[in-house]
Amino acid sequence: MRIDVVTIFPSYLQPLREALLGRAIDRGLLEVAVHDLRDWTHDVHQAVDDSPYGGGPGMVMRPQVWGEALDDVLATPDLPARLVVPTPAGRPFTQATAHAWAAEERLVFACGRYEGIDERVLLDARARGITVDEVSIGDYVLVGGEVAVLVMVEAVARLLPGVLGNPRSAAEDSFSDGLLEGPSYTRPEVWRELAVPDVLRGGNHAAIARWRRDRALERTRDRRPDLLDALGPDALDAADRAA
Ligand SMILES: Nc1cc(-c2ccc3ccn(Cc4ccc(CN5CCCCC5)cc4)c3c2)n[nH]1
Fold first, then answer.
1. What ipTM is given for this predicted complex?
2. Strand 49-50 and strand 31-36: pairing?
3. pTM, rounded to two decimals
4. Pocket of ligand 1 (CB under 6 A)
5. Where are the alpha helices (DSSP H) in 91-232?
């Protein structure tokens, strides 16, 4: 997978080159190119923002600069791409989104700053047949799109074959069966007088699987009843029985 990121703060994307994702890049499992939006300015001040029409707080990012940047980035390499634009006003980015995007050849991320990007940049891209996804990573307001891109690239890249050492982990993710994952334990058996649940130290795999499912149902009911509702009434009954 090829990932391009356009931003006025290229250094914000450095963490993508660390650790697991850095190793995946080194191994050629994904390619990440970060572009400085200001490379497409032509004025001495390298202006990328201007006042909003109609008034309102802050500044808006100018369409001309974004238009030229995306023309170049989307054309090189000329691969089918999704243009992803983080915004607080976007559709929710979920694990399902991550799975869908993991099948893409190319993702191009446009990181806004200030109060966002002139709407015509997205309209122009869609008019030229480019798929544009405006996505939110949560109901809170960040200062720009870069952190959202770090979150989304990590969620997508870990699903790519070969990136995770243990592929079963992604298969057993939270949300993979619609529930939150339950508690985990490792050695020692007792720590600060707290013991590992007996069932996990026995060899009864059916009992362990049932115990884990019950803990997942219980936790989901307590923390994310919305996920339980999405699974239907039987799940709620099962969660009540699990407690
Ligand atoms: N999930 C999530 C994604 C983001 C995100 C993503 C990208 C950008 C680019 C800029 N910002 C900062 C920002 C954007 C919008 C507002 C609202 N403002 C109200 C008045 C009219 C104009 C718009 C405020 C500040 C961003 C924030 N935050 N949270």
1. 0.97
2. unpaired
3. 0.95
4. 56-57, 86-88, 112-116, 136-138, 140-145, 148
5. 95-102, 119-127, 146-157, 167-171, 198-201, 205-223, 225-231
